[in-house]
Amino acid sequence: MGGTDVTDGWDWRQPGGAPTPAAPPGAGSPPAGPPTAPDGVHQGSATSPWWSDALADPWRDPYAPAAVVVPGPVDGAAEPEPVVDPDAPGRPTLRQLLLIPLITALLAGTLGGALGYAFAVRGGAAGGPVLGAGSAEAPALAQRKPESLAGVAQRVLPSVVTVRVASLGGTSEGSGFIVSADGYVITNDHVVAGGTGKASVVFNDGSTAAASVVGQDPESDIAVIKVASATNLRPVEFGDSDALAVGDPVLAIGSPLSLANTVTAGIVSALDRTMQAGDPGGPTRYYAAIQTDAAVNHGNSGGPLVDSAGRVIGVNSTIKSLVADGQEAGNIGLAFAIPINQAKRVTQDIIGTGKARRTVIGAQVGGTGAASGGTGGVRLASVEPSGPAAGAGLRAGDVILRLAGRPMTDPTDLIALVRKFAPGSVVTVEYRRGSSRQNASVTLAADVK
Questions:
Q1: Rg (Cα) of the chain, in Å, rounded?
Q2: Which of 37, 17, 281, 305 is nearest to 160 (CA)?
Q3: Predicted local distance difference test score (pLDDT) of residue 385
Q4: Is 194 exposed, middle or buried, given 0-12, 13-18 or 19+ CB atoms closer than 10 A?
Q5: CA distance 220 to 421
Q6: Is the Cβ–Cβ distance between 217 and 355 less than 8 Å?
Q7: Which of 28-32, 88-92, 354-358 has the lowest mean pLDDT?
Q8: Catalytic-residue membership of 42
Q9: pLDDT: is 183 or 74 the higher one?
Q10: Count of C-beta atoms within a 10 Å radius of residue 350
Q11: Considering 298, 325, 356, which residue would you say is the last residue of a domain?
C-alpha cells in the first residue's frame, strides 16, 4: 500500500516491522533519509528542525518512554539559593504560645459565667430542677378587659378613699367615695358621728388631704364630707339601684379592718331587705337595703358597692354577725348597703340645704295585722288628717298588705320602704279594711322638720 505524509515529522511503521518510506512529491521511491536510530526512529538532519530534539521528546516519538527526566546538578556547580515564601507562617514565639491559652481561658470563663447567670435567673439555683410548665406571659394590669372584675376594680379604686375622723374617744375610720370633681365624698353617718367636724381622707395612692363634714342624716345613715384643696379627683359613676336583680354580680370596695384598697366580690343576694339599726341611745335607722354576700367588715362602712360595669349602686353600711354584744363582729356572708338612689337624693339635699328630707306616708304604725285579727300586713295606729295617707282615703285601723307591690310583714317594712322613695313619688297601697281588700294611690311627702 502507498505511504502517507506525516505532518509531525516522523514515519509511521507497524510495530516490529520496517518503516514505510514516504514517497517524495512526484516520485515513486523515497529519497535518502536521515540515519535510523536503534529504536527505528530516523534521526533528524541539520536541515530539519523537526528532528533536532525528537529523541529527547517523548511526545514526538510514540515509542519513547513516557517519563520526564530532570537533569541533575553539574559537578562543581553551586547549589541554588532556596526560595522562601514570605506569606508562609513562621514558627510561633514563646510570647505567642503563652497568649493563646490565656485568651482562650478568658473567653471560656466569660461565656460560662454568662450562661450560668442566665440559667440561674430563668430556672432558679444552678443545678436545681426547672419548676412549672412554660406558659405565655401574664397580661399586664392595663390589658385587663374593662368588663372583668380586675378591670372594674382598676377603674373604681382611684375614687375610693379611707375616711378618718378625730373624736374625744379616739379616731373613727371608715370608707367613702368621691362623687364630684370639686371634692364631695359620701360616707356613713356612723363613721363621722361624734367627731369634731374635722376629717381627713387617704387616697388609693397613699396621699392624704384634709376634709370637713358638710352635713349628715342619722336616720338614713348618710353623711357628706368635702376634701380641701381638691385637684385631679375622679368621681364615681352612679348606677340605678332600682334596676338591680337578685344574682347580679357586685364588688365591695373599702378599707376593712384598716386594710386600704380592699376589693371583695359577691352577688346581690336579696333586695329591699328592710333594716332597723342604730347604737343604743342613738337614732334608729331604717332603710330597705341591698343584701350581698360580698365580704364586708368593720371599716367597709361608707364604701361603694358597685355593679359589673363599675357603677355605684349602694353604700355599704351594715353587717350581720353571730357574736354576742360587745364582741368584735366579722363577715359571715351577710352585708347590707343603702341603695344609691336613696343615698344620692339625701346627698343632694345635704349639699343644697345642709339637711336631708325624710319621706313619710302620714301615718303611724301600731303593730302587725295579726293584732287586729288578720293574718299579715302592718296595722295603722293613726293617720294624720292632712297627710298623704288620709288624702288617699286610708284610715286608722286599716292594715297595709303591700306597698308598691312589696309585702308588709313588720312595721319596719313600711317605714323603710317609704323612706326608699323620694318625696312626691306615687306608690300603690293594697290594704285590708275589715274583711275587704282595697287599693289606693298615695303620693308620698317630705317631713317638715
A1: 56
A2: 305
A3: 92
A4: middle
A5: 12
A6: yes
A7: 28-32
A8: no
A9: 183
A10: 22
A11: 356
157: phi then psi, degrees, rounded to nearest 5: -55, -40
Same domain? 342 vs 401: no
What's the total number of domains in the chain? 3
Give the residue from 334, 356, 378 where a domain finishes. Answer: 356
Catalytic residue among 217, 221, 293, 413: 221
Helices (H), 182-247: 189-192
Spell out a b/e string for 393-406, using b for 16 or more CB atoms within 10 Å of the CB, else e. Answer: ebeeebbbbbbbeb
Catalytic-role residue among 189, 190, 272, 317: 190
Strand 406-407, strand 445-446: pairing: unpaired
Determine contact, residues 376/386, Cβ cutoff 8 Å.
no
Q: 275: helix, coil or strand?
A: strand
Mean pLDDT over each residue of the chain, to the nearest integer:
80
Please report which confidence band the pLDDT of residue 125 belongs to, taking 50, 70 and 90 as the band edges.
low
CB 335 within 8 A of CB 291: yes
For residues 345 and 387, membership in a common domain is answered with no
pLDDT of 249 above 80 = yes
Range(s) of the domain holding residue 388: 359-446
| Annotated catalytic residue within 301, 307, 349, 413 | 301
- DSSP secondary structure of 329-368: P--SS-EEEEEHHHHHHHHHHHHHHSS---EE-SEEEEEE
14 and 159 fall within a common domain: no
